[in-house]
Amino acid sequence: MYCHENNIVHRDLKPENILLEQGKDMSQIKIIDFGISVHHSGSEILTESIGTPYYISPEIWNKNYGKECDLWSSGVILYIMLSGTPPFNAPTDKEIKQKILKGDYSLTDAVWNGISSEAKDLIQKLLEYDSS
Prior knowledge:
This protein is mostly helical and 132 residues long. 33% of the residues lie in helices and 8% in strands. The model has no long low-confidence stretch (mean pLDDT 93). A hairpin with an 8-residue loop joins β2 and β3. The protein has one domain (2-32, 45-126): Transferase(Phosphotransferase) domain 1 (Transferase(Phosphotransferase), domain 1, Orthogonal Bundle). The chain contains five helices and four strands; from the N terminus they run αββββαααα. A two-stranded antiparallel sheet has the order 1-4. A two-stranded antiparallel ribbon has the order 2-3.
């Protein structure tokens, strides 16, 4: 939220780029690796296809995106934190991309039985994409 309020789109949010500062409470997280981030006022459309495949939003794959790509990545991170696996898992980047563009993920495996409906609802909202 802080980055987006300051017109910065990270474009490569993933667990490796989220740090907790030692000795601080859990609300003190640090986002790192702004190497592919951009300043984005919101009026222009970003078109560069960039990021780490598991976390790339469909809008990035389609080269038509803005700040929402970071929200998608946050949904993927939350999914991984709660289930231990990525929502769009496949052996190749091409297959990962295909699953992402189809919205092909599940919240019905046994691991999701103990997860709150609010958490699942948040994931569904973060991973929402209208392919039409």
